[in-house]
Structures are given as C-alpha cells and as structure tokens.
Known about the structure:
alpha+beta
Amino acid sequence: MLKIKQHFFRTFIFIFILVLISIFCVIYFFIKDIYLLEVRNSLKQNISFFTINLKDIEDINLIVKEIKKTSHIRVTIINNNGKVLIDSHEDKDIMDNHLLRPEIIEATNNIWGYSIRFSKTLKKDLLYVVKKISFNDDILYIRMADYIKVLEEKFLKLSIQITTIFTFFFLIALFLIYKINRKIEDEINNIIYIIQNIKEKNYTTIKSSKYIKEFFSISTLLNEISILLSNRQNEIDKYTTNLKLSNTQKDDIISAISHEIKNPLAIINGYTQTILEDNSLNNNMRKEFLLKIYKNSNKVSNIIDRLRLTIKLEDTTINSTYKKYSIKKLLNNVCEDLRIEYKNRKIILKGDDVVLKVDDTLFSIALTNLIENGLKYSKDYIEIKLSKNDIKIIDKGIGIEEKYIDNITTKFYRVQKNSWNNSLGLGLFLVKTIIKLHKFDLQIESKLNIGSIFIIKFK
C-alpha cells in the first residue's frame, strides 16, 4: 500500500508527461501546418518568377541549372503527356511518366497542384507544388519541390527548447509539491498521533492544523473528542477510586461491626455457658454474671441502634420534636449515666444554665457521644463548660493529629495510626448530623498527646 506522497508524485509525473506529450503533438502539427504553408507559398512565388521570362526550352534548362546551384529546391518540367522534359536532380530519360502524379492531376484540373509524398527518385519526403502553363502553344507543368526534413530539424530544435523550459518549471513545481507534501504529511502524522493517543487513552491535546482547512476541522474535532474522552475518563477514574474507597470502607465497616459485636457476644456466650454448665455457682456470682450478660447485650443493642439511627438521619426519615429544654439538665442526665459506666473517670460540669429549643432525645445522643469520646481517651477527667454561646467538652487525652480533624466527622471514618479509632466511625458523624439538624455548629480543636476540645456553638 502506497503512502499519500507516493500517490501524489506518481499522479503528478503522469500528468506532467501527458501534458508534455500533448503539447509536443499540438506544436508539431501546428508548426508543420505553418511550415508547409510557408514552403508552399514560397514555391508558388518561385514558380511564378520562373515562368515570367521563359523563352524556350533551352532557356528553361539554363534557369533550372542555375536554381540547382543556388538552392536545394528541385525543379521538374513536364509536358502535357506526362513526360519529364527537364529535372534538376535526375536524368530525365530514366524517369517515369508523371501524368498520374497527384500534384499533376490536381494541376490539370485547377492550374495549381500540391502533394506531399515520398520521392522514389531522391528517396526522401518532399512537398510538391505544380503550375500548369501554356508555352509556345503547348501545355507544360512547372513543378518545384522542397525537402520535408527541414521541418523535422526545426521541430527537434523547438522540442529541445520546450523540454528545457518544461524541465525548469517541472523542477520548480516538484520542489513546491515536495514542500506542500511535507506540510500535508506533517498534518496527517499529527492526526495519526492524536488518534493513537486516543487509542492508548492518552488524551493529550495536540495543536490544530493551520495549513489545510479540512485537516484543521479534523484535528479540532479529534481534540474535542480527546478532551471529552479525557473528562469521561477522569469521571470513570473518580468513580473507580470512590468505588475502591467505598469497598475499602465497607470492608472496614464490616470488620469494625464484627469486632464491636464479637467482643460483647463472646462475653455473653462465655458467661452464659458458665452459668449453664456450673451448677455450683452461688447466687452472688450468678447475679454478677447475669449483669455482665445484660450490659453486653445492651452494648450490642446500642451498636445496632446507632447504625439504624445513622440510616434514618441520612434518609431524613426521622421525625424531630423541638421544645425548650434546660441544657444543663440534659448534661446532668447524660453525665449521671456515663459516670456509672466510667467509674474511674471524673466528669466536671461548669457554667450557668441555658434554655434552647432542641429535640432532647437526639441532642442527648450527641452529647453522650461527645462526652463518651472524651472519657474513652482522657487520662483522668474531662471538663464540660456551658455558656450562653456554646458547650465545650475538654479532655486531656491522646489528641488528634491536625490532618485527621477535618475527616473524623465523616461517616465510617476511623483514625487507625494513633489508636484514636472513633469506634465504628459513626459516633462523631451522628454528632455532626444531629447538631446540624439543630442548626448548631461543631468545632474541633486538638493537639496530639495534649488533648481535644469539642465545641457546640449555638447560633
């Protein structure tokens, strides 16, 4: 399969040769006609001059000999019967009868006769011109002939000149076509490069063609397609990344839920098995085991409730009832419940009471999660400061690295590198969602190994 430039050059050379041959043919026949007409007129003039002063045959013979000396023109005198009386180039006695020669026949009818034919006598092509005249009460045919070879010589000379001129213009045209072909080849390579990049999903924008309008349109369209595919590929990559992240989070969630539920279930299973198998347990021990079973079953229930609450909050299917409540009273209730569970931790509540319009159930859940987080990670105690503008829950725990602070309220996000694991990754997400429902703001300030401050700002 040929390249475009090969097709182009082949076509150009074929057209050039065809045009050159056509011009040669046209010029040849054009020059031939002009030359023959010129020679014929010249011979006619010579015959006319020749016949003006004719006196007798001897006089004619002298004039013919003179013409032979001074020019290459052949002169022949023929009588009415076709017999050659005088010939400048051949012996008249050995020459055939000329009565049936084409030019003699034509002159017999029209006074002048013409023909171009091959001379058997001279073995050359000649142009014959004949005039029929009356001489001394007799009819004579005065014939003069000139060589056609002169025409071929002139044509050859002209052909060389034309070929030289055409070759010059051909080389110029060839150079220009080469330059144009290089431009076209560059544009085609540019388009092929774009298509290859698209095929390989390398959506790099290539400069558009500025040489040929059609190539400009094609390259512009391909660039637009490349940008479109690039955007689509980015969307696919984002979707794939999000899907991978989602799958990773899902695995983490399943692992976290399994871990969170497995521990209390293992405790429940262990204590239940002990109660069933050991009949020697006293009542106090049995009661303690049952209390542990009860607490761990509540823990499992709380995990499930938290998951269900998260789903409800996300789907906005939860019905909230907002009433004016004492925030200090809500805090006291939450603290009392948590003090039972975290007996080794101290909770200090400071500040004046504030009455706000809240959903006491939801707001209590948010407060419980925040305070419980502080209790889990605080070394000794946590401090709660209540003011008319906000609630601050301050712990002296392990703290959170700054790079994690913006993400810890995201659903299922868990900080694992510094043991601050946010349980299932739902607690702070629930807190943020509930606070947002109340049109409050949650702010987090934390320093690693120093502690954290969770602030609920009232609007």
